[in-house]
Design brief:
It is elongated, with a radius of gyration of 35 Å. The longest helix is centred in the last third of the chain and has 16 residues. Helix 1 runs parallel beside helix 5. It has 455 residues and is mainly beta. The strands form six sheets. Strands 21, 22, 23, 24, 25 and 26 form a six-stranded mixed sheet that branches. Strands 5-11-10-7-8 form a five-stranded mixed sheet, with no helix packed on it. It has a five-stranded mixed sheet with strand order 13-20-19-15-17, with no helix packed on it.
Length: 455
């Protein structure tokens, strides 16, 4: 029940553990292990040291010597890639050879290393220990350069000092620093509600009450810098259960992507018609972070559905891809067709006749097939092109549309194609006088509803 003491009590170079016992005896147990460095026995006894100082650093007793030390040093600096330019996030190796050319000992010698750029400074301290007269010691150290340094001049300064304040001359090295280009990410996600992996649902691509959903992520680095230790976290204030809320994706080089999975479930008593998700991306460099907000409709669970007269064959819902809204030549650039595209997808979903692919489904599938989604959506407006992309998306039907303006009148055309037969099934065109987004939303919604016979 007493505090043990650890040390070499018989000078055999091995550790003993000494402690008092309830039988009124003192025991010394030999461990058989070699005596390590003093630094590896940071607290060998009650009160830390023979002075019972209770101080981690102990009590420094200055030895009075007739002659002081005289410290000199030689410093070697090398950057990680050897180009003599310090890059953000790089490791810099510093080797210091310290000599005591004086007549007295130097006690408790430490090395002080500084990295400076403008008013920004980092500093490190390395213990070297005692150096007797006419003796030398070497210490090696690594500086981790911050990622957020700027391009321009910078420098490293080093000096050594003992506990009595005797110090060497300063070593100053002027170098050039290079800013690290930041990454820039886009997050694409696909709803997975089948019975494989960690999801459990009917596999129709829609979020339904009682299902467990895998949100499959495709994170693209569209910047010029490497994204390091990228992770995406999920949160929601809608009362869903987040099962796996963090996805570790790893390093993502420029113009590359990484995949991850987040998992959540919709409670059986969920009452809302939509669920809002917040996706937060962060990475090690701290040069980039991103928050994406996703909103998905939530449906009542459908156990079976007949799309045939009574006694007919029960069929599954056909799939429908809603292609991005084409921009007419005269449509102003400030009109964001991406917002209107989402509106069109939601309208098609409300018809209840199809399993409608989400924007994320379409975007990720095109990327997986080696296509540039943005380029494809902007350039593909013809019937044959739409049908070809419908096949790539494995959709039964595909919707194409175009929005343009003539004078002060917006014209919106909407068509639905049978992908397998390469034929147009139905088309609808409507127009409205210009009146901002509300007028355009009304135009697109009413055209869609008429196309599907919803009103």
């Amino acid at each position: 029940s007493s505090s043990p003491s650890i040390g070499d009590i018989d000078n055999d170079g091995k550790l003993e553990v000494v402690f008092g016992s309830d039988d009124s005896k003192i025991y010394a147990i030999s461990t058989g292990y070699k005596l390590p460095k003093e630094s590896l026995l940071p607290w060998p006894k009650f009160g830390h040291d023979s002075y019972n100082s209770g101080n981690y650093y102990g009590v420094k007793v200055k030895k009075r010597t007739r002659y002081p030390p005289y410290l000199t040093m030689r410093v070697e600096v090398s950057d990680e890639n050897g180009n003599r330019i310090i890059d953000g996030g790089e490791r810099v190796d510093v080797g210091i050879d310290v000599s005591n050319k004086g007549k007295g000992s130097a006690e408790g010698v430490e090395a002080f290393i500084f990295f400076r750029q403008g008013s920004f400074e980092t500093n490190e301290k390395v213990l070297i220990g005692d150096i007797e007269a006419e003796k030398s010691k070497r210490v090696n150290f690594q500086i981790s350069i911050p990622f957020n340094i700027k391009t321009g001049p910078c420098g490293i300064m080093v000096y050594v000092s003992d506990s009595a304040g005797y110090r060497s001359e300063e070593f100053n090295l002027k170098m050039n620093c290079a800013e690290v280009p930041p990454p820039a990410f886009s997050i694409y996600s696909v709803i997975d509600d089948d019975l494989t992996g960690k999801s459990s649902g009917n596999g129709n691509g829609r979020i339904e009450v009682g299902e467990t959903i895998e949100l499959r992520l495709n994170v693209r680095n569209e910047g010029k810098g490497v994204g390091r230790d990228v992770e995406v976290s999920l949160s929601s204030m809608d009362g869903i259960e987040v099962i796996e809320g963090v996805s570790m994706i790893g390093n993502i080089p420029p113009d590359s992507g990484g995949e991850g999975v987040l998992v959540f479930s919709i409670p059986g008593d969920f009452k809302k018609d939509r669920v809002s998700l917040e996706l937060k991306l962060k990475e090690k460099t701290g040069l980039f972070s991103k928050t994406d907000f996703k909103s998905y409709p939530v449906y009542e669970r459908v156990f079976s559905k007949e799309i045939a007269p009574l006694g007919g064959i029960v069929q599954t819902l056909p799939s429908l891809a809603v292609w991005g809204i084409g921009r007419g030549e005269k449509l102003p650039k400030e009109i964001n067709t991406g917002v209107l595209w989402t509106l069109l997808i939601e309208c098609a979903t409300r018809s209840g006749r199809y399993n409608v692919l989400t924007k994320d489904n379409i975007w990720t599938t095109l990327r997986d097939k080696g296509k540039d989604p943005e380029k494809a959506i902007n350039e593909c407006v013809s019937a044959m092109c739409l049908v070809d992309y419908g096949r790539s998306l494995q959709a039964d039907y595909i919707i194409g549309s175009e929005l343009d303006i003539f004078g002060d009148t917006y014209i919106f055309s909407l068509s639905i194609y049978d992908v397998q037969r390469s034929t147009i099934l139905k088309a609808k065109t409507k127009e409205t006088k210009s009146g901002g987004y509300e007028a355009l939303k009304s135009l697109i919604t009413s055209t869609c509803e008429e196309l599907f016979g919803m009103k």
